[in-house]
Design goal:
- The chain is mainly β.
- 7% of the residues lie in helices and 40% in strands.
- The protein has a five-stranded antiparallel β-sheet with strand order 1-2-5-4-3.
- The chain starts with a strand and ends in a 16-residue tail after the last helix.
- InterPro entries: DUF2283.
- This is DUF2283 domain-containing protein.
- It comes from Floridaenema evergladense BLCC-F167.
Length: 70
């Protein structure tokens, strides 16, 4: 998984895997798009207005938690 951020446009992209096929972009909301392959595989999630969405409760930090380890 890779997270990229473009401060010029305030867009973040969470890449779950490399795009190896044609994808369809589905608009989930005004601030989120999902790239999905014909077989249902999700390739990535685009967050518009990203700084507000990613830093809402964590003082600007992105925190990754492995639920298995706590």
């Amino acid at each position: 998984m890779k997270i990229t951020y473009d401060p010029r446009y305030n867009i973040a992209y969470i890449s779950l895997q490399e795009k190896t096929a044609q994808v369809e972009t589905i608009q989930v909301s005004e601030e989120m798009n999902v790239d999905i392959a014909p077989d249902g595989t999700i390739y990535g999630i685009e967050l518009l207005n990203a700084n507000q969405q990613l830093a809402a409760d964590n003082q600007g930090k992105v925190i990754v938690v492995n639920e298995a380890l706590g």
